[in-house]
Amino acid sequence: MTDHPQLEAQIDQWRGYVQRRRAISAGDVEEMEDHLREQVTDLTRTGLDDDEAFLVSVKRMGNLDDVSREFAREHSDRLWKQLVLLPDAPDGRTHPWRELGVVLALAIGAGIAVKAGIELIGDEMAVMRNIGLLVLPFLAGYFAWKRKLTWQVAVALLIPFALLAVVLNVYPFEPDGSTLFLAASHSLVALWALISVAYAGGRWRSDARRMDYVRFTGELAIYYVLLALGGGVLIGLTLGTLGLAGVDFEPALESWILPFCVPGALIVAAWLVEAKQNVVENIAPVLTRVFTPLTIAMLLVFLGVFATAGGPLGAERELLILMDMVLVLVLCLLLYSISARDTLAPPGLFDVLQLVLVVAALAVDAVALTAMLSRIAEFGFSANKVAALGLNLVLLVHLLWSAWLSVGFLRGTRPFGPIERWQTRYLPAYAGWAAIVVVIFPPAFAFA
Length: 448
Description:
Blueprint (H helix, E strand, L loop, with lengths): L4 H15 L6 H20 L4 H12 L2 H11 L21 H26 L2 H6 L1 H17 L3 H20 L7 H22 L7 H38 L5 H26 L1 H31 L9 H24 L8 H31 L3 H29 L5 H23 L1 H4 L4
Helix pairs in contact: 1-2, 2-3, 5-7, 5-11, 7-9, 7-11, 8-9, 9-16, 10-11, 10-12, 10-13, 10-16, 12-13, 12-14, 13-14, 13-15, 14-15, 15-16
């Protein structure tokens, strides 16, 4: 139906309305949308135009209030205090304590894996290289249990996990080589993409599930930071108290508490996000509105610094690295902002600010690309330069089309839905580039 923008706009409005019925999960909304699209397709084949087919199909779907109440009765485990029905007596289908037990077991398992890695490997750099493989499988295991993944999907996830483990530990990397650092850092991106499959319950092609994963990632970062700050305060108070009593707490902290708490907190934070999604969704719009103008100011500062750096060759390597870090931050902010936006709301001032943010990021990306190409022409290729160049090209395509779609939305020529779908459908490009850097770059640059 991509050739029917008017119909897509109507379906976007319908989906946004249904999504606000909090008794209906994202997966159920997607199933309802699939059913709606099937009915529209069948009716258009009989000779109805798009508008007529859509109206008839929605009518057949029934009154949405009734649909919401029906879902509320059938899925009472999804309801919180503010939903359309008061919860009935426990029906035996929900086991909150059981889930908490699973989460704590997985969190302890992640801590044991990290501790065992430290003790058995004995090489700090080797442990850091494998940190994603030691911790993230437990997060994937939580979603596999929660989403009740089929064994086919589980096997499909295990294969790339095993491949990454082989690459990171069998490739003959030079200890201080660039490809070792590139493979280790990009493997985290590839692993995070694999976890999205478990999070989506195997429905990795679903736009809605991918956007849910974007929201989850942002919310997970918020909760993890809050847990880290709270844990840091407790550890500081404990160190101070025991220090006054003459007890040296640091050996236990370094050897046992941190190896267990740091990875375990990731699993606990994921569980909190799953359990308290609406609480963080109220914070998300505020955060995006605060940091968007601040990030625009930072991008303008970067452009000013680059202008005084003496041209492309005059830009220091550290400045280019900082530019890439800022562009990744802009990407995260853009994704999180779009995921937190009401798709039915008309264009407003914040949408203009988002377009300014994207245009400023495009300017930074353009000057960074110019500098990188100039440095490659002057000094030759290296693994770091090619990896940075590829990332900037992937970002450039993403930001260019996002800007184009945003201009159309602000002018009223297209709905917000295509902007949201573009973000989710382009995300695999980053996972693909990360996989190339992990698997192909080391042998291509002689593991140096």
